[in-house]
Amino acid sequence: MYYLAHINDKGEEQLLKTHLKDSAELCGKFAEKFGAYEWGYCCGYLHDIGKYSMKFQRRIRGSQETVDHSTAGAKVCWERGGMYQFLSYCIAGHHAGLPDKGSNSDTGSKGSMLGRMKKRLEDYEAYKGEIHVPSLGQPPFQPVKGEDISFCFSMFIRMLYSCLVDADYLDTERFMNREILRDSGESIKKLYEKLMEHIADWLDNCDLNTINGRRTEILKHCIEMGKEEKGLFRLTVPTGGGKTIASLAFALSHAEEHQMDRVIYVIPYTSIIEQNAKIFADILGKSNVLENHCNVDYGASEELRPMQLAAENWDKPVIVTTNVQFFESLFSGKSSKCRKLHNIANSVIIFDEAQMLPNDYLKPCIHALEQILRYYRSSIILCTATQPALKNLLSQEIEIKELCPRMTEQFTFFKRASIKNLNRISEEMLTQRLQSENQALCILNTRKRTQKIYQYIKEEGVYHLSTSMYPAHRKRVLAKIRQRLNSGEKCVVISTSLVEAGVDLDFQTVYRQMAGVDSIIQAAGRCNRDGKRVYSDCFTYVFEFEQKEYIPGQRQQMEVTESLLADGRELEDLETIQEYFEMLYHFRGDSLDKKEILKKFQKMNFQFSQVSREFHLIEEITKTILITKEEEAQKIYEELRVKGLTKELMRKMGPYCVNVYETDFNKMNAAGMLRGISEELKEDYFVLNDTERYSEEMGLELDVDYGEAVIF
Fold first, then answer.
1. Strand partners, 75
2. Which of 268, 444, 510, 680 could form a disulfide with 356 if both were Cys (CB 3.0 to 4.6 A apart)?
3. Residues 6 or more apart in contact with residue 11 via CB below 8 angstroms
């Protein structure tokens, strides 16, 4: 009897012992990056020993029998006890996902770890004739004093799990489809050379009286700081200081200095990922930069197939992704999401707009980042003009190194406008002020209010911007706005916060409804952005309406800002920004871990599956509405009706969709404005029935009352 792991379409057979040995070597190679080769090897070597059962061998040769082949290796490790039990979680979950530990009362029908250890299995004892259980040494690290050892080992299990899942996938893929060619991109050394060639002319500018001279000073310092030992860094750069290229320069310099594998750029907004990814791709080459988030589908063409494969496990030298993708993967239990995690090890990780680290999950996120710093040989950079006050949340021994030279002086130099507090004003007072402006931006907290104020003052040169407009529509409007701003014509924009980051607009005056200090500073970054206007003529005005209006989930941020303004503090001062975050985190207290994620890993009672279900950075329920005003959108709708929802069609429809919250959706649906795209998609995806309810000026009409009906 010879035991098989796989049979491919050509009828070729892969011996089980070959698959186990090759998976073990690959898994060990991945784990070696954090000093755990033998742990990875053992995990890979035992993961499929359940396939030694006769029932599985009959199945692989054509029978329709079902058999659990994952529990056997987990059981062998569990019964050995001690450190081997960490591997049990990885092996048990290598298809179904990391399980919870469960309780002693769990029966064999339960999917928990303790439940599966009671499950009756097919006889797999034949493995002993071909496979031995490798020995394990001590873990590759010793937890530091005061550290939560359970959380520490939960991260270790995740990383080993990632190594196993990727090794198993890759070895199986290599056998089943030998024609698949993966492309890992060029070396960090080559990318660093490309960057240095791109910026060579910039480095000659030493005039510190110019914006470009200051940007060069910051850039040069970041390159030099790349020689520093691995650790936690900050790049605190004012708006206009060139932080995108400066942070990339540090990362590549640092990675080259320490033979690190990749740079991971984590961004809070999908709206600015595309432009940053394009900047990096233009400098480093498209094949070296992977853009990985929900709006990207590389499977749309055969030409992009290598990128689609790389997105599975982040096997590229530069990754551009979102906070959601990064942190939800770190706390997921699903094999598809965890597969990439081992490639975070030995990387430089940049968090752009670091003040947007998720407050509701800040404590578990910081715990996870500390693990990556300590035990997985990576460096982290927090990059923003408004640094969050993380020192009190970090362990005492972790030092933060600043990358911006003469930071306070840079902020003074780049200051382009004054921030003034208007206190409380009426809608009428706001509209009067806006009507007297030539080039002004007004940022409001809700889409409904934005539409309302726009209606008051709309005329030639006045524009509305919000996410009630689909992305392709917003793009056209932004092009008109830029054109008018550049030509000096009247241009007044009423917008939601979507313009606060990544949208390079330059106004003489900005109005910002009360929000967190970081949001106000971001808004102020659109005021005299290019420094071409006289400083004394440029203002960012902060105001509240007579009746307070809180942004959902932002009440504490707004109240802390109000308190600082009441004390006469200047919001743009670095000390004020620091105090803002310290006060905010103090008031938030336990709600910085609102789902009590950390408690779910205490006393080695790992709750991987439960945390995977609960850890979601975006929790508001929204519905997606396709707007078919344009010919291209109508074509996509017809395809959807025929083919159903595919990844390719999701990518195509994105530029023509508006997401609405459940309360607004219910009113629109009750008014007969919507219909399901198809029977199977009726719960999540809809099309606007009456395109007259979508205007070129404001987008989707949100001011809808219950009881209103549309009759066809």
1. none
2. 268
3. none
CA–CA separation, 100 vs 114, rounded Å?
9
Classify 125 as helix, strand or coil: helix
CB 236 within 8 A of CB 404: yes
Q: What is the pLDDT of residues 102-134, one digit of tens each?
A: 999 999 889 999 999 999 999 999 999 999 999
Calculate Rg over the CA atoms of the chain.
28
Both tokens assigned to 178: 């030998």
Do 447 and 492 contact (CB within 8 A), yes or no?
Answer: no
> Given CA atoms 497, 502, 507, 509 in this order, what sign does their dihedral have?
positive
> Above 90 in pLDDT, residue 551?
no
Chain Cα centroid distance, residue 6? 36
Stronger pLDDT, 297 or 315, i.e. the higher one: 315
**What pLDDT is attached to residue 275?**
80
Q: Show the tokens assigned to 635.
A: 């074509």
Q: Which residues have CB under 8 Å from 125's CB, separation 6+? A: 52
User: Which residues, 6+ apart, have CB-to-CB distance to 467 below 8 Å?
Assistant: 447, 496, 498, 658, 659
Q: How far apart, in whole angstroms, are the C-alpha atoms of residue 292 and residue 276?
A: 12
Tell me the average pLDDT across 424-441. Answer: 96
Q: How confident is the model at residue 583 (pLDDT cuts 50, 70, 90)?
A: very high
The token pair that represents 416 in the structure block: 């382009």
**Interacting residues of 436 by C-beta distance below 8 A, sequence separation 6+:** none
List the domain boundaries for the chain.
4-176, 194-411, 416-571, 622-700
Give tens-digit pLDDT for 246-258: 999 999 999 999 9
Which CATH superfamily groups domain 416-571? P-loop containing nucleotide triphosphate hydrolases (3.40.50.300)
What tokens were used for 417?
A: 């406008």
Confidence of residue 98 (pLDDT cuts 50, 70, 90): very high
Structure-block tokens of residue 443: 């940022």
267 — phi, psi (to 5°)? -125, 135
Same fold, 4-176 and 416-571: no
Nearest-angstrom CA–CA distance, 206 and 221:
13
Q: Shortest CA distance to 702 belongs to which of 667, 657, 656?
A: 667
Assign domain 194-411 to a CATH class. alpha beta
Cβ-in-10-Å burial (0-12, 13-18, 19+) of 331 comes to buried
Contact 33, 377 (CB under 8 A): yes
CA triplet 235, 239, 240: central angle to 5 degrees?
100
Predicted local distance difference test score (pLDDT) of residue 684: 74
Checking if the pLDDT of 573 tops 80, the result is: yes
Q: What integer pLDDT is reported at residue 704 of this predicted model?
A: 65
The span from the CA of 333 to the CA of 161, in Å, is: 9
Task: For 218-254, write each residue's pLDDT tens digit.
Answer: 999 999 999 999 999 999 999 889 999 999 999 999 9
How far apart CA 17 and CA 28 sit, in angstroms, is 16
Instruction: Find the angle CA(44)-CA(48)-CA(49) to the nearest 5 degrees.
Output: 110
Closest CA to 579 of 409, 391, 416: 391
CA-to-CA distance for 117 and 120, rounded, in angstroms?
A: 8
pLDDT of res. 142: 83
Residue with tokens 């699903």, as numbered in its chain: 334
Q: What letter represents residue 392's amino acid?
A: N
pLDDT confidence of residue 270? 75
E-strand ranges in 83-207 read none
* CATH code assigned to 4-176: 1.10.3210
Apex 309 CA angle, 21 and 157, nearest 5: 50
Helix (H), strand (E) at residue 351: strand 347-352
Pairing of strands 289-292, 318-322: parallel
| CA distance linking residue 358 with residue 341, whole number of Å | 19
Measure the CA–CA gap between 312 and 103, rounded to whole angstroms. 33
E strands, 532-595, are: 539-545
Give the pairing type, strands 694-695 and 699-700.
Answer: antiparallel
pLDDT at 545: 93
